[in-house]
Design the sequence.
């Protein structure tokens, strides 16, 4: 498609049972800057910056393959959030220390990145990836 996209922004909206813990984890530990925050009579929302956003669509076969490479078995649901980081090993250790469950440590992939898999707050399965090439 030439020209600009009619979609100007991708915003993934996640409902967290423990809003404060999720906000601390993603904003303060992972390091996603807070772009805006709003409250309603019954709740709160924070919009965190995540750099460039893309929507990665995969069929079941490819999702199986990625899980096999990163974890060794099928573990992800239909949504997994991937964050590019400068140092996958350091970021994995930092998030684990903040309470994320490490499903698989950083592993070199066939597409030349170092990927780890974690379970983060708000029931999000996370891939941290560091481009090596």
Sequence:
């Amino acid at each position: 498609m030439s020209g600009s996209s009619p979609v100007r922004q991708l915003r993934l909206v996640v409902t967290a049972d423990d809003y404060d813990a999720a906000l601390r984890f993603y904003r303060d530990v992972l390091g996603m800057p807070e772009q805006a925050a709003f409250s309603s009579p019954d709740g709160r929302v924070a919009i965190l910056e995540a750099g460039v956003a893309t929507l990665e669509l995969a069929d079941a076969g490819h999702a199986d393959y990625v899980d096999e490479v990163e974890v060794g078995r099928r573990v992800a649901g239909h949504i997994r959030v991937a964050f590019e980081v400068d140092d996958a090993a350091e970021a994995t250790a930092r998030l684990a220390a903040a309470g994320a469950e490490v499903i698989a440590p950083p592993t070199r992939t066939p597409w030349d990145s170092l990927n780890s898999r974690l379970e983060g707050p708000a029931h999000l399965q996370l891939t941290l990836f560091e481009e090596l090439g």
Remarks:
- The longest helix spans residues 19-29.
